[in-house]
Design goal:
Elements: E1 5-11, E2 17-22, E3 25-31, E4 34-37, E5 40-43, H1 45-58, E6 63-69, H2 79-98, E7 103-106, H3 108-114, H4 122-132, H5 146-162
Parallel strand pairs: 1-6, 6-7
Antiparallel strand pairs: 1-2, 2-3, 4-5
Helix pairs in contact: 4-5
């Protein structure tokens, strides 16, 4: 049966992920694919677009929306690192825009505070995602899966803060 609500949570960055929630239940997760461009790793937009299109095709008529983490330069980032991080986030935002998916952004401290993750290590998000979504355990086996956990929790944050009774299209 097709979902009425398809929510994407996106953790930007080269080790980030795109997670889906289908009516609040975890669906497929895609680690952001990368490609080498002139010796630098960048996200590869094509597989992301194909993944999103596939999720939409599998859930015809579902209301589709996305929450992406709003990133900025961190004090310890160098100029090149900050630029590349912003470039990745911008590419992800453009993908959603071109696909016509409404998106909202949230700064990390806001969504993490709402989930009690401020001051915790990266694995705390993975542990929370495992408790909240036991069916996603296969996606969250290792500490290195913190990007997947963040993406799932961003989708959950989106569903719990932005769902206002929108019905399937």
């Amino acid at each position: 049966m097709s979902a009425l609500r398809l929510t994407f949570g996106i953790d930007p960055g080269l080790k980030g992920a795109v997670a889906t929630l289908l009516d609040g239940t975890p669906g497929p997760i895609l680690d952001l694919p990368t490609v080498d461009v002139d010796g630098w790793g960048e996200i590869d937009a094509r597989p992301i677009v194909l993944f999103i299109r596939e999720q939409r095709a599998n859930n015809p008529g579902a209301y589709v929306s996305a929450r992406i983490e709003k990133v900025g330069a961190r004090p310890d980032d160098g100029g090149t690192s900050a630029f590349r991080f912003g470039q990745t986030a911008g590419k992800l935002q453009a993908i959603l825009e071109v696909l016509g998916i409404p998106q909202t952004r949230v700064i990390p401290s806001v969504w993490k505070r709402s989930m009690g993750l401020i001051g915790k290590d990266k694995d705390a998000a993975r542990q929370l995602a495992l408790r909240r979504f036991p069916s996603a355990a296969g996606y969250l086996k290792f500490k290195k899966h913190d990007g997947r956990a963040d993406a799932l929790l961003l989708a959950l944050y989106h569903d719990s803060h932005d769902w206002d009774g929108k019905q399937a299209a």
